[in-house]
Amino acid sequence: MASNISILLIDDDKISREYVKNIIERLNIKELFLADDGEIGLKIFKEKSPDIVITDIEMPNLNGIAMSHEIREFDKKTPIIILSGHEEEHTILDAINSGGINKYLVKPIKANKLLQVIKDIAKDLKPKENPKSILTQEEKDSLLDGL
Predict the structure, then answer these.
(1) Which fold has domain 2-145?
(2) Which residue in 92, 15, 16 sits closest to 54, CA to CA?
(3) What pLDDT, on a 0 to 100 scale, did the predictor assign at position 59?
């Protein structure tokens, strides 16, 4: 389940990023991409197309909500989890409503809670289409016949 997924983690606070990274690595996922601000996170997202995005809200250059909004401009499906020290209802609602956020977790992050959220999201993920896997074996064989 979780071993087939890739995750993009964006947090400008090195200690928080390392803490969450260590939690995620317990899942033995396929790939973990790291960024320390929203602009870099968005660039990595566009290049690597991770299965799940986990981001802090408050970051330099491009905050987590603005980055999530930009992701939603061209990708409506990739789950986004926001991590934040803000517990105010208006901050949470803004993140969910304007950024297309799937989950909002308040810092300090509890390891078991984050792991469960990732596992729950991973269960519902559909494999991203890979052109090589779309062809049946018979179609692949027929392509080789002409060589």
Answers:
(1) Rossmann fold (3.40.50)
(2) 16
(3) 92
